[in-house]
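Our preliminary data section would be incomplete without showing what the modeling component actually yields. Below, a chain of 223 amino acids is followed by its predicted structure, encoded as tokens that our downstream tools consume directly.
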Amino acid sequence: MKPYRAVLFDLDGTLLDTLNDLTEGMNRALRQMGYPPCTKEEARSYLGNGGRVFAQKALPLQASQEEAEACYQAFRQQYARCFQETTKPYPGVLKLLCALHKKGYRIGVVTNKYREAAEALCEAFFVPYVECVEGERAQVPKKPAPNMPLRILEKWGILPQETLFVGDSSVDALTALHTGMDCALVTWGFSDAETLRSFRDCHIIEEPMELLGVLQEEKAAEK
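Predicted structure:
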């Protein structure tokens, strides 16, 4: 077992509390199309698999694929206007990223949020800690496929076995599994803690700074 050299994070529900702005952006799109809005709790349950799935789930069941695509495009336009209205890092996240940066870990973000929004948010909140961002783009499979995290690791010359993946959902747990990375799941995000604890091979993190303990445990085991 090699000690960790990199930590890859999910974005929404892990580093950033984006739920209010995501809900607002989707509801503006739904109203634009003449559909009723969704509640924040409904939006929470729709998130994790990218904007198109979010739009499809937010629409009535009888909506067509064409309507779902139109809703997704409307959502992107509306979300671009409100994506930083209330979004902020979760308490303790900046302290954690600063500590990881000082200790020399490479830090990246892998998210199913479309890439332009992900990059803008990381630039707004996480400079100089986050070095690389991978988000939804054409022709690149989304999480839980391993393509996006592997793009970052190949760029850095770091192995999956040297990387800890941190997220808040079953999608993130499966991403780590499919990529060959260890996984830590946070309880403050969009998934309920009971669901997260069903992934028995993943570390469960209640507070951001607990992640340092996971990394140190692995280094101690290596010695």
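The chain has two domains: 6-17+87-222, 19-82. The domain at 6-17+87-222 is CATH 3.40.50.1000 (Rossmann fold). Preliminary results of this kind motivate Aim 1 of the renewal.
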